[in-house]
Amino acid sequence: MILKDIIDIIESVAPLSGQESWDNSGLQxxxxxxxxxxxxxxxxxxxxxxxxxxxxxxxxxxxxxxLLFHGLKTIQGATFQERVVEKALRHGVxxxxxxxxxxxxxxxxxxxxxxxxxxxxxxxxxxxxxxIGLGVIGELEVPVSAEAFLETVKTAFRVPAIRYTAGxxxxxxxxxxxxxxxxxxxxxxxxxxxxxxVSAEVKHHEWLQxxxxxxxxxxxxxxxxxxxxxxxxELLADKPVNVLFAESDVSPVQVY
Length: 256
Prior knowledge:
By secondary structure, this protein is of the alpha/beta class.
């Protein structure tokens, strides 16, 4: 399969025109005319992930987070980004990252988060364009206690612990979710009637402002976006390409 065809499929739902102005989504390394027989999907393009791609004979690494946010002035192996670029070029491995282009697709990162806890009828939380935006909001089929909701989220996202603040009390029915650094949007979640907001990167003043108003959960940046790999696999499900998940794709943050 030609890389350009794979890119066209991804961008048919997550066009680069929707990415944030500061982002660097898109083709990071390689040429669009490259032949691709095997793809390795991941959240972050780490050195371990690139080593795995090379070992498994993959032609393309599909990631959520871009390997390159800023220009590299030299490639001397001083940083992991430099070493990844060097290995990718030496072994002919292409790299494509979707990131905020996939974030704003309603059925993208945040939509998949919602589906993981049983919410399938959802809408955009913070619109950023025509039919696109950050986060989603929807309702659980059956209201649950805050404790039961925390347990559901903990299990669904396979996290050892969750940071949260007490909400307004009562059952949890309407839920907002935002993958990655969406903690700042808790006010929008409150304004749309959410009982709980699942996200990451919550700041101290946001915890203070949310207390007693909404059950705010910080499950970790990587953890909230880990299922983006599934989106890539589903988009390429009926195509003549082998799609693998990177076994070395793990959160760099540990919990003691």
